[in-house]
Specification:
This protein has nine helices and no strands. It has about 300 residues and is an all-alpha fold. The chain has one domain.
Amino acid sequence: MLTLAVVTARLAQFVCAMILLGSPLFFLYGLPAQGVGSASSLKWPRPLLSGAAIVLLLGAALSLGAQTAVMTDSVADAFKPDSVATVLTDSHFGLAIAARMGLTVLAALALVAVRPSRALWLVLAVLGAGIVATFAWTGHGAADEGAAGMVHLASDILHLLGAAVWLGALAALAILLFESRGAVLDAEFAALHGALARFSGIGSAVVAILLATGLINSWFLIGPSHVAELIKAPYGQLLLAKVALFVVMLGLAAMNRFLLTPRFGGALGTQAPTEAAVAALRRSVVLESAAAFLVLVLVSVLGTLAPLSSQ
C-alpha cells in the first residue's frame, strides 16, 4: 500500500511539473505574442497551470509523508511534525521536496497575482525548470559520489528538463487541437499550424538531448556488466518497456512533423478539408500523449526499484 502511494505521488508530481515547465515555455515559442491564437487570448492556460500547481503540492505532501513512513518504519510518524521536519532537513530527499514545494507555491502566487502575459509565462517556465530539476535529487541520479556523481546528476537534470519541454508542450498542444473544433477563421487555423511547426522544430533538439542523456544515465544505472540481465530483472524489463514507448513516441512525432503537419499546412486557404487534417493530428497527438503518460508511469515505478548497477 505504501509503495502504491509512493508511485502515485511520484506520477502526479511528474505530470504536473512537466506541465508547469513545458506548457508556459510552449506559449512563448509556439504561439503568437498577441492577437488570435496567443496564449493570453485563451481561457484555459491559467486553469491548467493552476490545477497543475495544486496537484503538485498535494503529490509532494503525499510523497513526503510516504518517505517519512519509510525512513522511520512507521506510518504513524508520517503524521508527526517532528518526524516530517527531520526528513525535510536531514536528507537530500527532504531538501529537494522542500525546494519543490517552495517553487510551486511561488508559481501558484504568480498565477494569482500576474495577468496572463508573456512575462507570466516566462516566470512560470523558470520556476518550472527549478521544480523539474529537484527530481534529480529524489531519484537514482543523486546516488553516486565524486566526479562520476556530478556527471550523472547533471545528465539526469538535462534528461528531466528535456522530457518536460516535450511532454508539457504536448499537453498544451493536445488542448489546442481539441479546442480547434470550433475554429472557423483562417487566422485560427494558421496560428495552430504555426504552433505545430514550431513545436516540431524544438522537438529535434529535445530528442537529441534525451538520447544523449539517456545513454549516459543507462551507463550508470545498468553498467556494461549487467546488460545481459536486462531481460531477466524487473528493473530491466520496465526500462526496456520505457524505451519501446519512447520509440513509439518518436514515430508518432516524426509522422506529425513530416506528414500530418505539412498536409494541414497545404490545406490552409484552400477548399481542402482542413478539419479532416486537424482530426488526423488530433488522433496522433492523443496516442503520443498516452504513450508519454505510460512512460511517466514506468519512470515512477522504476524510481522505487534498485538499478541493475547496484544489484
